[in-house]
Amino acid sequence: MSRLQLTVRGVAVLATGLAAASALILAMPAPARALGYRLAPGATFEPSGAPPGGALPLAGSFDLAAWGVCPLPCEPNAYGMMNVVLSTGGNLLSSGVVESIHAGLVISGPAFEVLPDDSVQTGFFPIERTIIETGILIDDPHNHTDYETFIERSLGILIFLQDDPKEVIHSDPRGTWPIELTLAYTLIEKTGTARFGWDGTGSIYLNEIVDSQSEVLGYTTFTAHPIPEPSTALLLTLGLVMLALKRRRSAREDRCRVMWRG
């Protein structure tokens, strides 16, 4: 057997092994970790007060993860959204950057939960928050020493209006990850001032949100699909390359057999 034949056979064996490994890895269920999602075409944003048919195309992406820290009920499946970037009509609705404020919740609730009866309970969570101003308070009646003014945008529980039904749709092959989903939310903008600081004795930390005002900006409805991870895409590409090499080897062997018989 010539060196060329040995090389070709070695490449073929390697190709077969890598293709099998790729198929096995792709078939394995991915662990429930944060995974990137992209909004599918057809997603819409309906501005508050818009006339019928006034919905705008919505685009964006977010990271989705199984949500392990939340108040009951959180069973059987609860999920959190992070880094939510949304845009419509050339305008950015959310940058995905949520700056923390002293008087804010440390842990927000899940974005949505799949309940035992297969219904979906949507949550309320910030998708963008920006601190506008910070400063020092003097002679505050509640002993606050500092303040922050902020503006926040959140996705919230969908408001059902009479004669204007909006359905929370959900599609989830239960027990698998990643999931496919279609959801609807209310987009809410909130402004306020967070006051915080130690009390006069320095033993109790005080914080509260005052002058808070909220406004419904509109309603979102979107289907989202997982974005293939780089490793998954690489394995898929590698498997296809190996398959092409194997077919090329088979074609070459066929030509050799024809030439030998001739």
Which terms summarize this structure?
about 260 residues; alpha+beta; 2 domains; 11 strands; about 20% helix; elongated; disordered N terminus
Give the secondary structure arrangement, pairings included:
Layout: H1 3-27, E1 35-39, E2 44-47, E3 56-66, E4 77-88, E5 91-94, E6 112-114, E7 120-122, E8 125-136, E9 146-156, E10 181-198, E11 205-226, H2 230-261
Helix pairs in contact: 1-2
Alpha-carbon Rg, integer? 27 Å
Report the sheet with the most strands, covering strand number, pairing sense and barrel closure. Answer: 11 strands, antiparallel
Strand content: 35-45%
What structural category characterises the helix and strand content? Answer: alpha+beta
Structural account:
This protein is of the alpha+beta class and 262 residues long. The protein folds into 2 domains: 1-30 and 228-262; 33-225, no CATH class. It contains 2 helices and 11 strands. It has helices at residues 3-27, 230-261; strands at 35-39, 44-47, 56-66, 77-88, 91-94, 112-114, 120-122, 125-136, 146-156, 181-198, 205-226. Strands 1, 2, 3, 4, 5, 6, 7, 8, 9, 10 and 11 form an 11-stranded antiparallel sheet that branches. A hairpin with a 6-residue loop joins strand 10 and strand 11 (205-226). The protein is elongated, with a radius of gyration of 27 Å. The two termini are 20 Å apart. The model is unreliable at 3-8, 17-32 and 231-236 (pLDDT under 50).
